[in-house]
Amino acid sequence: MQSRIRPPSFSGRLHDVRTATIVGRLLGIAVAICFLTGLVSHLLQEPPGWLIGHLPARPVSGYRITQGLHVISGIAAVPLLLVKLWTVYPRLFEWPPVRGVGHALERLSIAVLVAATILELFMGLLNTVQWYPWPFSFRSVHYALGWVIIGSLLVHLGVKAPQIAAHWRRPRQGAAPKAAAPQGAAPQGAATGADDEQLVRADRRSLLVGLGVAVGTVTVVTAGQSVTPLAKLNLLAPRHPDNGEQGLPVNRTASAAGVDLKAVRSWRLSVGGPQGYELTLDQLRALPQHKATLPIACVEGWSKSAHWEGVRIKDLLERAGLPDGARLRVVSLQTRGGYRVTEMDRTYTRDDLTLLALRLNGEVLSPDHGYPARIIAPNRPGVLQTKWVTRLEVIPG
Fold first, then answer.
1. Alpha-carbon distance 203 to 87, whole Å?
2. Is-contact 388 356, C-beta < 8 A?
3. Are residues 40 and 109 in the same domain?
4. What are the C-alpha distances in Å from 215 to residues 68, 74, 79, 92, 237?
5. Which of 24, 132, 177, 207 is most buried, by the most CB atoms less than 10 A from its CB?
6. How far is the CA of 364 from the CAs of 247, 261, 263, 309, 334, in angstroms?
7. Residues 257 and 225 in one domain
């Protein structure tokens, strides 16, 4: 006699739609914040043609806030995702595994959603410590995965909309809908019984409290790298905003960038334009100096405000015959690593706070902070605040 394959049974009371909906709602908020702030970061670093000329230089701490939220929400999503997967994992053992074309597509979309989300969070966490053990570009894959997650999430929400709507709000006492237990779950008595419902609610409340503690803890001990009041509790984040030369962390040192004493000793600043010119460091220092308090905010999530002093970019361009500013190509002395050449939009070059900085926190720039000169501009990603600047080239058009 042929034996029938029987799925395993699960006796937990919280593998139900109501619990999955509550946790999914919280996870959805974290994913939405992470996606939207990541989109802002991408557009600021690689603006499409329609955005060129319109990149916002205000608020000055805009990128610091959005990128800080991006990393904070991504870290908070880790315990949320783990609990969400725990509430629904019994459905992996449904039998039969596929009950038709529609069911197969639903399961496929869930598989894509789960796999993409796990990979996205894993890559994001490794990026915060600047470890890239893969052969492909982190930024392009990370960006593409974000769209995959959002697309598969929308499909999943569309399929599950009736169940989500039925369990979105807390039911009135005694009027709770029946929990949709996974197939193969062990009998637990009458699902609508008052005693059972009270037990389920108590267990759910305990689970959510524990989840809240976990999310709150990982947030508090990592957010200090960008949220100054929490800096003293910054136990697990890879960067502390107060650790580094001249009171500011360093991502890439002069040595790592291939900038040596010989290159600095023969340094000149070349500025392009109708009346292009070159300046020595002493000549640059003799120009009117301006001060600005602006943050450095890096894609890894850390940020710190600092006091900068230098020559306004708009003044350098005006001297070159460009009184209304221009799009610039900024060229660094560095010989290794990415972002040796960056571009700066007109909204930055016209801004009074955009400086070719020569001093940091009252001291001459150290080699690791970009000596002899570096860019500092408001609401601009840290990777575009180019160090060891040697040329400012005008981009036509």
1. 12
2. no
3. yes
4. 16, 11, 6, 26, 15
5. 24
6. 13, 16, 18, 9, 19
7. no
Distance CA 185, CA 67 (A): 43
Nearest residue to 388 (alpha-carbon basis) of 281, 299, 240? 281
Name, in order, each residue with C-beta under 8 angstroms of 136's C-beta and a sequence gap of 6 or more: none
The answer to whether 376 and 308 are in contact (CB under 8 A) is: yes
**Residue 185: inside a domain, yes or no?**
no
Dmax over CA atoms of the chain, in Å, equals 97
Residue found under tokens 């803890």: 217
What would the two tokens of residue 14 be?
A: 């919280």
pLDDT 10s digits, 3-56: 555 556 666 788 888 999 999 999 999 999 999 999 999 999 999 999 998 999
CA distance 104 to 112: 12
Task: Find out whether 335 and 216 touch, Cβ atoms under 8 Å.
Answer: no
Same domain, 213 and 255: no
Instruction: List the structure tokens of 383.
Output: 């990777």
**Does 262 share its domain with 364?**
yes
How confident is the model over 162-200, as pLDDT tens digits? 888 888 887 665 554 554 444 444 444 444 567 888 888
Global confidence as pTM = 0.89
